[in-house]
Amino acid sequence: MNKAIVIGAAGGTGQVIVSELLSKDVEVIAYGRTEEKLKKLVEDNYHHHLLSYKVGDLYDFSTIVEAAKDVEVMFLCTGVSYHANEEEVLRFGKKMMDLADFLGIKIVFVDGIYVYGYQVAKGDENHPMEPHTRKGKLKVKLERLIFSGQWTRAKALIVRLPDYYGISSQNAYLQPTLEGIAANKPTIFMGNLKTPREYVYLPDAAKMIVNIAEKEESYGEKWNIPGVGLISGKEIIRIAREVTGNRKAVIPLTKFSIRLIGLFDAFMKEVVEIMYLTEKGFVLSGDKYEKRIGPIPATPYKEGLEETLRILMKSKKEI
């Protein structure tokens, strides 16, 4: 891979994928809606000579075509809004596939695990897709559309991540917890503090995603991006307190409390239906990645959390 475009480059996964591509000397076009954020992304990568940016909307076909001249792979790190309906989700998927087909390039969809519903076996790529939520059912339809075979030039793959964390994670469920502790303030935790759950450190996820995308034989398939096992909220908070010295309260938000907040907040209203993932951790198998790509990058939780918190604390002091 010599040249790639990252759509949603200023988002959580977009930022780390841009950095990982640059580390492999891939020329990158960072595409997004907000010029200020894209400029900061360039600055954070020390004005890397291989990095440029283009401002445009997700549905601005002509602008993306112009930006994507001579690219080989498009990384799609953004999507429709959290409360989008079926028509919007499928229109988005078709639009992106039409775009990749027009350009004759590969496309990488970065997605989550809602398609699986409750875990019934080890979470490999063949886990039954039997979601019980509206979002999960829409994601199944999107996957079937992507792999429907109606495009002649585009080659697509899907990578699926569990919950994630890292300095760029922004809207991740763990982010308010880490930001609050780093700021020495009382904060919240999404879900039960005792439930062991899987998280992936975003720099590790970016390495895996790019490694998968580099291989021609990866396309036409879906791939897991696993974390390093299970960890409870209590353990995360213990590590965070060791790093920061913050002993302020961390309040767990249950499904019931989020439903109440959802009466006044549209985003939190949409979160309610996927709270099942906070009640029983879903673990992704990395067997396929290990067999076909190589060793899984696996930053221990303690190391990844320490690095994230150190940067958060530094940024709070600079504000």
From TrEMBL:
Domain of life per record: Bacteria
Domain NAD-dependent epimerase/dehydratase, chain residue ranges per copy: 5-225
Pfam families referenced in this protein's UniProt entry, alphabetically: Epimerase
TM segment ranges: none
Protein name (Swiss-Prot/TrEMBL): Nucleoside-diphosphate-sugar epimerases
Organism the protein comes from: Halalkalibacter hemicellulosilyticusJCM 9152
